[in-house]
Amino acid sequence: MSAAHHYHAVVWIDHREARVFHFGPADVERLVLHPDRPTQHIHHKANSIGSGNAPADHAYFHAVAQSIADAGAVLITGPANAKTELVKHIQQHDPKLAKIIVGVETVDHPSDGELVAHARKYFKVEDRMLPQKP
Question: Distances from the Cα of 70 to the Cαs of 5, 40, 74, 78, 83, in angstroms?
Answer without folding.
Answer: 8, 31, 10, 21, 19
